[in-house]
Task: structure prediction
Amino acid sequence: MPGFTTHYIFGFKAYQGLLPSPLKTAIKQHRRAYSLGQQGPDPFFFHLPSYIRKAGNPANYMHNEDLGLMLKTMLGFLYQNPKLADFPLLLAFTAGFLGHYELDSAVHPYVYAMSDPEATHAMKTLSLHFALENELDSILCRRFMGHRLNNFKMHKVVRITMKESLPIAELLKFSANKVYPDMKASSLLFQNAFSTEQFWAWVLEDKSGLKKKLIRRIEKLILGYPVYSGIIGSENLYPSMDDPFNLNHRTWVNPWEHTIESSASMIELIKAALSRYREELALINKLYFMDVERERFLRQLFRLIENKSLHSGLSPAP
Ligand SMILES: [Zn+2]
Result:
């Protein structure tokens, strides 16, 4: 993550910025698949059976490393098979998935720097992690959708049909098994994760704000601090910290590489990710819908995507 809504709005802003083009048309025709793609591997965080799988949770594989390689495998497959019946659907989903990769890898280092500076992934650090993301969701929802987070019908924007789900799951299975053979992913696993995402998006909607209050109270009683109440889709009434978006430009350090410092605000990080993502979408459009110099566009696109970790934002040393 960032939060569900932030990913959705990121995709929406990128779509709005696209010039009329075949890619824009494909996304418009398959906007729910594109929005589901913007959630990246996060549906697996809501898929309880994935936590007890022998081969491990696919969300962890994809967030830790090599998602850049997996995206290149997906894009490469579409490059080789432009005549597929489901091509526009698969392209819209893959373009969305790329958006998740860019936003997570840009914003996560800051979120971890604030909530878990030694990258311990301890349960307690999730409290601030989720609270920060919830504040971002809340503010972006008001700014770009003109209403409170409580009124956002999350489950509707990612609800795809079974007919759409199967080819997407097949593409993910093919690409995941190439990049992460140990993950042992099946297309059914991906389809189940999509359904779970749609279900939890619905469960976590919280029009009145009561769900968050209640779960928060229970968590404080049992754990002593709130955790998952932070991801419930209502505005956060409990400020996570002073200056959560770093508008005062304090210096922060990448938890995975302490020599990397930054004073960027969360807003600047999102803007940089958006401009990079827009560049990638423009290249995708040229790559799949123009007849000339396609090899060159493919190389340019792959160079731009790199192979970043969604946690640290760092690419492995070449
Ligand atoms: Zn993520």
DSSP finds 13 helices and two strands in the chain.
